[in-house]
Amino acid sequence: MLGKKILPFVIVVALVVPAGMATYYSGTQSTVKETPSIADRGEEATDMGPALSERMRSLPADCGEGVAAAPLADQVMVIVDIMRLRSMTVSGPPLFYFQIFIDGEYALWWEEVYEGTDIYFEWPMAAAELAFDEEDSIIPIQIQVWQKRPGLDRACDVSGAASPLLAGKTVTVFYDMRRGEWTGDDYLGDANGYGHTSGFEDGDEDENDCELWFDIYQMEEGDSWWGEFDRLTSWEKEHVYGLNASRNYCNVDFNGDGIPIDWEDKYGFDPFAENSQADEDPDEDGLTNYEEYRTSQWLSDPFAQDIFIEVDGMQPRHPWGDPYIFPKQSQQIMLNPFARRNITVHIDDGTMGGGGDLIPFDEGMDGNELIAARLKYFLNGDENYWRRG
Questions:
Q1: Beta pairing class for 105-106 and 95-102
Q2: Which of 6-10, 92-96, 258-262, 289-293 has the lowest mean pLDDT?
Q3: Is the separation of the CB atoms in 231 and 225 below 8 Å?
Q4: What is residue 201's predicted lDDT score, i.e. its pLDDT?
Q5: Among 50, 59, 225, 389, which is most exposed with the fewest C-beta within 10 angstroms?
Q6: Is the pTM of this model over 0.85?
Q7: Domains (ranges, CATH) in the chain?
Q8: Using an 8 Å Cβ cutoff, are 212 and 143 in contact?
Q9: Which residues pair with 76 in a beta bridge?
């Protein structure tokens, strides 16, 4: 019976979670060996960007702040932002490093060896300044993940491509500098999420498999690392939306649905739609598009299913004891069965700003006490708290 006695350890399951990602990495510098050039995958690089409204609109004078580049700049900086790497089958404690190629050129800013089974990264990892040609705007980008080992390093499988060779383990995409979108091994609307790949996608779970989250975007003259800038390219501002190509539209919401234009553009929604899509749930995971936007800082995707779990613990029975918590290793064990089915589980034990509370020890919490704990520690005393769903 629940009211009789329960394990002194509380897990509160929530619809959503909050922020503050920790970054773990080793300070060890690696000597990265010569890497094969981008493999010829025999794939045609085509513009397969999502269909968006082509209505031409102009920005009101009081919307958008800051001046970016001159319209349709001759040079753009393409940035590859690795946000998270999770070991799925790599034996630990693993050491990883990256090799990233943009338009065939090695593009890492620095060479670093990272240690851990689930690593979040603070800064973008690679960039290249390229000439912009409207008629020839698609470039290949390749992301490789390597496990550093004594003797011979080993490539990790982060791709759904079914090949035992390096080309089947790395992520190769074709990035359109006009629209800021990509196709290839990862694309908008794929089952695993946009900017999310996994070695499990090829059905072989014995290839040093890892899970990777990344983004690709551009910086133009006038953009700053120390301020916010939108993901929109100058080309699409002018040719798709009829906007001022030199303006910064970060956090601008044209149709008043609570979602800014650059998030809607990234995921193929019409940012000027009169009938808001904010309440829709295209992947049927229980998160509306508005909630997907709010949780995108924790790597959710509106077209790939996410489950958010907030976890709290319990204080020890005795002052000299250890608290009852959900161990990190146990968390990792439960992620793979869901990842195998293209479902991403996000666990907030305090790393996302909501979980990690230690409830006072009580070996006999009844139903009413559990409800009270949920209201206090998960909903923060607010029955309408947005993370309730």
A1: antiparallel
A2: 6-10
A3: no
A4: 87
A5: 225
A6: no
A7: 1-28+282-389 (no CATH), 75-232 (2.60.40.150)
A8: yes
A9: 130
